[in-house]
Please model this.
Amino acid sequence: MIDIKLLRDNPDLVRASQRSRGADESLVDSVLAADEKRRTSLQEFEALRGQQKSVSKNVGAAMGALNAAKKKGEPTEDLERAAQQARDDATTLSARVKELEQGAAEAGRDFESRLKQLDNVVLDGVPPGGEDDFVELEKVGEPTRFDFEPLDHLALGERLGAIDMERGAKVGGARFYFLTGVGARLELAMLNMAVAQAVEYGFTPMITPTLVRPEIMDGTGYLDAHEDVYHLPADDLYLTGTSEVALAGYHKDEIIDLADGPRRYAGWSTCYRREAGSHGKDTRGIIRVHQFQKVEMFVYCKPEDAVAEHQRLLAWEREMLGKMELPYRIIDTAAGDLGGSAARKFDCEAWVPTQGRYRELTSTSNCTTYQARRLNTRFRTEEGRTEPVATLNGTLATTRWLVAILENHQQADGSVVVPKALQPFLGLDVLKPL
RNA sequence: GGAGGCGUCGCCUAGUCAGGUCUAUGGCGCCCGCCUGCUAAGCGGGUUUGGGGCUACAACCCCAUCGAGGGUUCAAAUCCCUCCGCCUCCGCCA
Model:
């Protein structure tokens, strides 16, 4: 949810943002109109409610006087008449107040549902346009070259006894897999390495719920893309596609202390995605699967620190990729390809030799105060006011990384060299075919 | 799955049975001031959150807020219903 004050003061900024996303610009005016209506009906209701309260108080006073007189045995006729009169006045008002109250509530709901439809305002410098309009910021390393015909990650994985797609499909269906033997060990080693790095930089490691309530899923903005989210109707719970969801919900309805700097969490969770819109894409291997593991960084910070923090998250992702000795590039995602919550997003894409192109391994988003407004997470400013915090997230490692690791570090005999930094976590320096 | 208890403005707590100066009590903590060799103590004041009005985003005024949402009523912390959460006991289960 964006700041309604920003929208009132600077609607053109929001219009421009919607335009660069390719989203609906007219939503801006519909929100402004709904805001106007909400405030008018609220004022009407509140004015009459004030009247009703004071009249109702007269009833209380009249009843008190009447009861006192009865107790003393004094004549009560006048008092009874006065009490009845006050009650009648109040009854008339009451009906009208109820009407106005419902009108105000309705206007409030209408306003909020419209406001929620607006995506976050993109930051200065974000390239306009869609998926293909990203800007490449930097290339790190050179695409790996081989003096033999490289195998793809699945062929390698099968030879190493690391990946079993066939039995994955038997058990879970398409896009499910087993990691076996060194495959399972490799993933655990990588994830542990990611957590170790996070801890080194002061993150609190977290193992999070992967089933969440609707309001949490909605608060992070993922419910807008609900066709990609697993839902358990019997319990009305959602399976999370990233621990970001649980970590964003962690401080819902709280006023957190940011006086000592940002709150940094590293969430480890299994992630579930329906991949409903990607039938036929990446059907081979573990590039795009329904279930995978991820270590995710999540940060709560003051809004004015968010841009700098975003760069830090990117730097931590780069450090991980560097330790995996992978060639990659960094892209500045175009506005139309941002999630509704993000104001800017940088992806790191690693070179996948058998595809001859770069594929996303990490993604870091600055959601500014957008998620925090929906989830009601605030901090106290030095002046003592409460304000929404900024939230950011970024990937430290996922199952998909195994694709890049296997393919880039393969040798002619089908073995795979383990990156130096990973060796202590895995306890192996090379993976050999069975 | 069954039975019972509980949820009050940071923490604890009074109020709920018998609806009406509840404009929610008191303590702790915290903030400001006074007093004071220093510290402590003492004294006085302040201290939920959200929204609206008016504005200097101040002060002030108004509305809502007693887990959440409905209902009854002139009037709800208080009565009724639904939901959520916590605790205890029983049952079942990795």
